[in-house]
Here is the input.
Amino acid sequence: MRNRNSSGRSESDKKVCVVIAFEHRDGKSGRDYAKVIEDYRAKSLQPIFDTHINNEAQILADGWSG
Here is the structure.
């Protein structure tokens, strides 16, 4: 239940980690993928990369270093 004295978004401090990938080929959108993960450590991300990204793919990232 929402506190009537608060405004804006949820007061919860619970955060959800999500990894999102999408394919962009020849100017068109292709497949996309999203998954909730435990954290952003390499141990959590590597299986997703191995399963969904071709070794020859060009990867663009936001540059976040943790």
